[in-house]
Amino acid sequence: MQYINNTELLGVVGNIRKKNVGSAVVATVQLTTQRTYTAKDQPTVENAWHLVTLWDKDGSLGADNLKAGDVIHVTGHIRYRKYISADGVEKIATEIHAGTCQVCDMNGESLEPAISF
């Protein structure tokens, strides 16, 4: 049996934290997505925030050029990571480890070729 751990997101970039690790640029991106549904005959919009990690190994793939407000299409896999918070409590973070990232227009149409990580 083969297991699958794939995810695909199309959303708007919020906060970005970037750091250099050797020659690589690691970008941790908060990405918001929306889901619209009808509840009790009322249209409802639900926002969800996702933590996406982009490893740009040699700095040439453009992770350093992302900015808040960009619409991106990300494919990757889900990872769980344990860490100790500032108050000493062990927590678990759920993040998307990006395999590809593509900047899109507001309709989700590609503006650039996909970037593989």
Description:
The protein has 117 residues and is an all-beta fold. The chain is built from no helices and six strands. The model has no long low-confidence stretch (mean pLDDT 85). The chain has a single domain (8-111), classed as OB fold (Dihydrolipoamide Acetyltransferase, E2P) (Beta Barrel). It is globular, with a radius of gyration of 16 Å. The protein has a five-stranded mixed β-barrel with strand order 1-2-3-5-4. A hairpin with a 2-residue loop joins strand 1 and strand 2. It starts with 6 loop residues before the first strand and ends with a strand. It has strands spanning 7-21, 24-39, 42-56, 71-84, 90-104, 115-116.
Low-confidence stretches: none
The total domain count is 1
What would the CATH topology be?
OB fold (Dihydrolipoamide Acetyltransferase, E2P)
Q: Based on the structure given, which CATH architecture is correct?
A: Beta Barrel
Strand content: over 45%
**Class computed from helices, strands and strand pairing:** mainly beta
Number of helices: 0
User: Which CATH class applies here?
Assistant: Mainly Beta
